[in-house]
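Regression report. Comparing outputs from two consecutive submissions.

Submission 1:
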Amino acid sequence: MSILSVKDAGFSRKAGPLFEHAYLEIEAHDRIGLIGRNGAGKSSLLGLLIRELVPDSGEIAWARDFSYSYLSQNIEVPDGVTLRDFLYLGNATEISAAVEKKERGADPADNRQSNVPTISLENRYRALCRELGLSDMDASLQYFSGGERKKAALARTLAPYSSLLVLDEPTNHLDVQTIEWFESKLAAKDQAFILVTHDRWFLDSVVNSIVEIDRHTLHSYPGSYSKFLERKAVDIASLDHMENKRLANLKIELEWLNRGARARATKSERRKKEIEKMRKSLLEEARSKVIFASNVARLGKKVCVMRGLGLSYGGRRLFGDFSWELGPGTKVGIVGPNGSGKTSLLKIIAGQLEPTEGSVEIGQTVRMSMFAQTNEAVDGELSVLDFIREHAEHFALPGTSDLDAESLLERFDFPRTFQKQKLRSLSGGEMRRLMLVRVLVESPNFLLLDEPTNDLDIETIESLETYCAEFSGSVLMVSHDRLLVDRLADELLIFDGHGQIERFHGSYFDWKLADAERAEAASRAGAAAAPRSNATSSNIGKRTMPAQASDTAPGSPIQASKSNKLSYKEKQELAGLLKEIDALESEKRNLDTFFQDPSGAISGGAPFPAPIDFVEAGRHYEEIDRLIAEKLARWEELASRE
């Protein structure tokens, strides 16, 4: 059943058309990945689908009962907004009005109108927030990190049921664990979605069709992102053959015109201009992706040596006693939850942050460049060309003589007409690409990359990936892009979020397999010991384990008939689960307080009893996390049958 239909739609900006004669049909169970270069019009198309923008031509038809949930790329939150306000109210304007009412002493719920959540929706908000580690509904979002704000936005988007989920760069600012959680949620949802993302692993995992905006036209491809790449390769090969043939024919005709009689001169000149225009058009269509390149200075045996390295912040130890040596030509990926110290480690190596313990030694032959997660502060009035000229007038790239700044920028897909633009007018993706050019022209032999794929389109990410794969120096990268890490890294540093850094020799995929095997072994051991064990804390109460797997296939008629209605005992269990989870969350908050100030007091004012050190506290914290996850899974299972 069609829920939305785009027919012959066109949309333009000041610079010209983004897309023309666009056709798109979205069915009730479509899972669409929308891709295209930065500036191609992806976010604009999403804006048309949710009625925020109006097409210049054509029409868009929505089903009568159409509804949507929208996750914006940029999350705007006025000061004073709590997590509860953010979830229950819609857009930033609506939230601002609620905050003003609250300040005047009025009830902000008056603003909610039809958005007032039902008990069931409120429970879904709470459950999703707990799963995402956001337990305090009255916490102010102005103190949230970018990742925490994105988690709050995910909960707000996923909780209500709607015809269509519209997701614009949903994985930005998320760590790998949260992205994998989000993947599982999308897989379990029985509703259509269309999403824009630069995360190729995520894209390949969740979509069943691809829509590409290429040269102002929408192209639809059924199947996963992998299938799209296979089809695209065939299309490009066919296009190359056709273009070569057309260019050859144009060349023959041009030669014939040049040999023509003077009597045909006027006609010949006109035809030659037409041919030249066609040739330029073909060259534009066949334009290759930007190719990153740089000279690499010779690298000695010593690159980076860390001895007993540690960092504490705000009374919390991010990591400690870490000793490791990075070898020449080694490419290492860093993964772990947000806030665990990944970026801080890069900053320590770059000399931008002092460790609280230990030391870092950099080799004498090292030329280090860091591509930071956020763009450095720049003079917005500088032009693109002047910005690069500040670093040097001439550059040498592999296989070329010295290039001037204009030619260099052209190599990195900044045309000469674009080079005069002010930095303040650049999009996020354009600014990131320019910063990457600045890093590469320094001819580094040791690259520090902190979330390098942020704001880049897929084509640019692929070019960066190719460059790093062929880079003869050393690379240390923090990235939530699992495909990038998997393809480039031959070693991993895994931050566990509790002060430990694990080293793993192998790819990201190898590590995930090993991690799954460890989890399965631990689960088997736990199941064997379960009849003989008791709860570790009297506060926790009786554990509620997820339903055991059976031979019956999930979703089969047999299983559905067995679990269609809740028994009286299950209803009692459901009623008590949220209270049990609240108690666990309270204990978790006490542990958080202990981590920040071990000698202090818990929220109730009593001294923290036990565990008495970080190691014991860390283990207890992990146990509570596990119990919360189990109880949430059980709550979701029962609530879905209520």
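Submission 2:
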Amino acid sequence: MATGTNANINTAIVTTAQSNVRFIGPHYLSVFPYYLSIPSPDDIQSLEYHLSDSNPDSESIHYWTLAIPRPYGIEDAEKFVNNCLDRTKKTGVCLQWAIRVQEERTGNNGNDLRPHDPVNSRFIPTLVGMIGVHLSSNDPKRYEIGYWLSLTHRNRGVVSSAVAKACEIVFEGLGEEEIYSQTLVGNLSSRKVLEKNAFEYLGVVESNSGDVADNDDNDNRSSTDIDATAATITTADIPITSPAKSIQHTWLFRKRK
């Protein structure tokens, strides 16, 4: 990994973000000992580790996301963190968080300290994913939520809890009345996360036109029926490096306050 990485980060932005920006965290999740907090220069190498092709676990992350560059290198991580911190400085609001877990330092014996406490010197915060809220490129008045999580930390309720916390910030902190999310057709795990958080399925967004095939309540389609229909347009059998992946359709969901 590159040395001197932190030198490329605007430290003034970091200081400003941590002192003046709303919602920087830590935001504790219902799943112990995970929490959300603002990205920092210390996350750069962790981001590269999770998202670079040298990590086989990155395959599932890239397969189900479109916005993350691939291949992913240290420069991409630096740019991402810089953009996050610059945006928080300009807006005064943090809406992009690292999903972290407190891991005990190896070989360190001592008092019975709470790993849930981010300032606990016996435990180190480890980045295991990201979650963020942003204004939609299709509708600048519409907030959308996106996320990814390391493969080894899935199936523990972490993402569901993180989505719940992000929605709480949008509704209670920003005063918004609704939030949307799009997930690639066929991503059943992400769909279950959204449905668990009371997101309503609205339909399939056509990749070329951006039009939504409305969810007609009168057709009495079950989730199984929808999944079966979606299977006819998903590109799960296309190699991830194929340009055809960029034309994949998405499911659109909405949650209201």
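Expected: both submissions complete independently.
Actual: both completed, but the second showed a warning that disappeared on reload.
Relevant detail on submission 2: The longest strand covers residues 123-135.
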